[in-house]
Specification:
The protein is α+β, with helices and mostly antiparallel strands. About 50% of the residues lie in helices and about 10% in strands. The chain folds into two domains: about 1-85, 3-Layer(aba) Sandwich (Glutaredoxin), CATH 3.40.30; about 95-200, Glutathione S-transferase Yfyf (Class Pi), Chain A, domain 2, CATH 1.20.1050.10.
């Protein structure tokens, strides 16, 4: 049994899709991404940053394991339940690209979203927030272009096989909001093509209500 600290519109949704794809039992522990609302103390004990996703699992009858960071949880779950083939194995030539892409999602694209959605965290003065948002939106275009070019004519993000990286990609596309100045997904046709295929999976329809 896994426990997932969970909030709508957060990266925890992507991890929930992976748990569904893996066919694993899990419990959702409600939390929030609103810093003005109370965050469960159990969540803060694991991740003092207060972010989600946070995953908890039974290591044995007396101990629980726990971790945070969406990319790390993705790798952990898919390696722990490797029979589902949601990630290239360690000796698969696609493994390097898989890890590279997940880290790029986490460190580059998600960071650009942070600049756009939470610009106050990156500046000393409120007067500078508009500039931070503009830079975040430009960075979104730059980083999504890299991924769109990486996909090229591939069937899926890593090549011929569906993987958890495609789930991660879809999750990130749901955060694009043109009314906030983000680039439109139509600017990235390869990304859009894969996101639309991921959207048809039962796990995604269940969680994203597509």
């Amino acid at each position: 049994m896994y426990k997932l600290f969970y909030a709508e519109d957060s990266a925890a949704m992507g991890i929930r899709v992976i748990l569904e794809e893996l066919g694993l039992p899990y419990e959702l522990i409600p939390t929030t991404i609103d810093r003005d609302k109370s965050i469960p103390p159990e969540q803060l004990e694991i991740n003092p940053n207060g972010w989600v996703p946070v995953l908890v699992w039974n290591q044995d009858s007396n101990n629980e394991g726990s971790m945070y960071e969406c990319a790390a949880i993705t790798v952990f779950l898919c390696d722990r339940h490797s029979d589902a083939n949601l990630a290239p194995k360690a000796d698969d030539p696609a493994r390097a690209l898989y890890l590279q892409t997940l880290v790029y999602f986490s460190n580059s694209i998600q960071n650009a979203f942070q600049l756009s959605y939470y610009s106050d965290r990156f500046v000393d003065s409120p007067s500078d927030e508009a500039s931070a948002k503009l830079r975040g939106n430009r960075r979104l275009k730059e980083t999504w272009t890299v991924i769109d070019d990486q996909i090229g004519n591939n069937e899926w993000l890593l090549g011929d096989n569906f993987s958890s990286a495609d789930i991660y990609l879809y999750m990130l596309t749901t955060w694009l909001q043109t009314d906030l100045g983000h680039p439109s997904i139509y600017e990235f046709p390869n990304v859009k093509r894969i996101a639309e295929k991921v959207m048809q999976r039962p796990s995604v329809k269940l969680i994203y209500r597509t």
